[in-house]
Amino acid sequence: MSGIRLHKEHCLNPSVNMCFWCGEGKEVILFGASIKDKAPREVMTNYDPCDKCAENMSLGVTLMEAKEIQRGMYPTGRWWVIKREAAVKLFNRDDIEDKAFIEVGLAENIGLVEA
Asked: What are the residue ranges spanned by the domains of the chain?
């Protein structure tokens, strides 16, 4: 037995967990009776990319636009993958990580999107 308590009215009470980065569904979550009412059709529970986004992000250095709010970085949802060589040249550093947050507006300043 899975240990999930069924909701009296909605049984397994499923929702689709959506990918923050592309907005596509990535998995089904079964809420059962853990929430009072009917579960929303779609939820976003974390910033983990779906398999497709993870594959795209693995092709180079992922730049994720983010805002700083109350001492924390919060992604806006806009992201780009650039070649590692381009990242080294752009940021003038050799120790580039696979993923990096960039400030809102920097994408326009460095030519990733039109202002």
From this structure: 1-47, 59-109
Residues near 94 by beta carbon (within 8 Å), at least 6 away in sequence: 88
77-103: per-residue pLDDT in tens? 999 999 999 999 998 999 999 999 998
How far apart are the C-alpha atoms of 13 and 34, rounded to whole Å? 9
pLDDT digits (tens, 9 = 90+) for 44-90: 999 999 999 999 999 999 999 998 887 888 999 999 999 999 999 99
Side-chain half-sphere of 80: how many Cα atoms within 13 Å?
16
Per-residue tokens: 39: 């579960």
Q: Among positive and negative, which fits the CA dihedral 96, 102, 108, 112?
A: positive
62/97 Cα distance (integer angstroms) = 9
3-state secondary structure 36-70: CCCCCCEECCCCCCCHHHHHHHCCCEEEEEEEEEC
Q: Decide: helix, strand or coil at residue 23.
A: coil
